[in-house]
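Quick entry, no commentary yet.
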Amino acid sequence: MPRHRRFWRTLFLCLCALSLGGYLLLPDIVAFVLPALLAPHGYQQVRIQLGYPGWHTLHIPYLHVQWELEHGSLSVTLEHSRLDYTLSSLLAGRLEQLTIASAALMLHGPGHGTARPCQETATVPDGPSLLTRVTAGHALQQWPELPWHSLVLEQGRLVRECATGPLREVRLSGTFQQRDPGLDAAVTIEGQDHAGSRLEVTSTPGQTLQVILQGLATPTPPIIRLHTQVQSSAGKVALTGTVNVDLSQLMPFLAVVLPPGRELPPLAGDLQAHWQGSLPATVPLDTAWQPPATFVSGEAALTLKLPQAVGLGATCALTIHGEVSGNRLEATYRSDGTLTQCSPPQFAAQEIRWELHGTLGTDTQHVW
């Protein structure tokens, strides 16, 4: 056999052996390299079990990662995940779908692993506020492109170690679909002694955002219905929107975002508001009220029923209606409302009514 043929045959066999060896060792290589790559970014306890890639799928039997937060830590465990892809999607740098059969998110307290897991530790000084880095112009930008077209969560569980209430442990399932442009999401949320809710989000970057949170038990009004629209014109961002909130149904969800150990009193009522305004596109949100070019106007109505106080026989009720229009240099406002005072059973309830209007600016005036 000619020498050059033996050379090419030997080279081919070596390449095949290297490819086969790399394929067989790929799960072990990823399990060894991934923790080292994620450690500089604050990820801890990274553990992964990776299957062998197929022509169109890759199975990930197990993935665990944890990172520190300001008031504790968050650990995420994914089991039996599957990546679906095609050759064309891989060449484009994206996957077709990520399916997660089981996910567990554990929000631990600041003293996790000790006898007092919810004991506050020494606080770290807060860094710059997010509002100092975000401008109104960010609302016009496209969503960051995810590495997959769709995400399916078949079963998820979120546990907040130091929380109380019906949503201390939450069961989740849903889908996230990225389209060009925009994002659609539908998530079902269930908790202990909580009938369940469905969150739907439809967004088109730079145009509209719609959020609907709806209870699943009975045909009740939506817990939250939010609709906003964004437009750009002459270096400004024009915002319009409406929101309707059922406070009594919202209370369990507010408890989820509170720091551990804090609770809200039971409230009932509803809130309706609509607004419009224009903001400079490049000014940070924490100072967006300062430029003279800023202009806002809006109207809101709040009906609130406060919990019965100890020794008082009636539930307090508060109704407020307000309007505002203008900017920092001059803004007009008007507010009126009624407060029904809690009274002992032997006395009649008392009402307090008020009306307030005026102008805010260099020459501030208030009229009762």
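second:
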Amino acid sequence: MILSIGVALLAPLLLIDVLQLSVSAGDEGVILAGASRVLHGQLPYRDFFSIVTPGSYYLLASFFKVFGESLLTARALHWLIYAGTLAVFLGLMSRLGLPLRWKLVGIWATMAMGPPFWCILSHHWLANLGVLASGLLLLQSQASRKMVHVFLSGLAAGATFLCLQDEGLYWMALAAVALFFAGRKSRWKAPATFVSAAALMAGAVFLPLLTRVPVAAGWGNLVLSPLTGYHGAAGNRVSLAEGWTLPLRVFMEQWRRAAGLSGLPNLLSSAATFAGTVLVLVFLATAVILTGHLLVCWRRRAKNGSEPFLVLAAMVLSLLLTALHRPAMLNLVWAFPGALLMVLWWLGNRNASADKRMSWGLALSLGAPF
């Protein structure tokens, strides 16, 4: 409880400086322009082009209407998404029964590879928050055996679809499969409730919009363009290493200019870029291999916590599929929350009865790179 309160109150303050930044790029510019157009009465897909579902536009437009149309308002929304992501991630770790040491690693890693990693408002951060919240509600439903939590999880999945169509569809499909296999007596009730709630949430916002938009325009914007034209976008030439090591490279450049140095800062920056890329790729590969291994033998775990594992596996795969649809290595960061949860859950189970000093050492060694 003390840890939860501390994270909720203190950790988001570390990102408070983004409210004053004036640099904007990529997804944030798309959302800002779309929200401004929606605020002034235009419709997505009919009046302006967009390759994503309109949830982020309408959410930011509502903030613009209340707090004023400015970059500060957008960054305030980004800060709220960051605070919500930390709170939900902590809730997931608590629901999975992770000990304190692994919670600290999870919080630290989320602060390093979550919204502070790419300090702009993005539909990806919104969609990831939707998947995490939906997953938390599914885990809660497995503990309480109450269908209301499944229904609320479906609503969160529908909200995810409204922010990013492919991530929402991946999560809805995989979560429904996980619920089916986790069911013991009534296999169809939970998946049907989940999918119905997701369709209700998505349809309530999306269908009225599509009735006012030509079918060809909606199909071309949301289906054909993401599948055929997205790979040539300029942002897809940005690498994971460039985003991950940007603050370090800026610091090195400032140090080089101030001290009149040349070779050493560039060498250190290149080494950090390489090390950062290898670290993230190895971590994601570990999570994927671990998920595949546990899926192969999940029947053996039927009496030992297989239900949380199936939800985690659905989360890992849905976030990974979303990342892989986008060719830039930078986009692998969207798969990070699911991978992190899977690895922490596995380590937490393995170290439940291990020597505490050894377990704390392993936690610190994993958390140090982040």
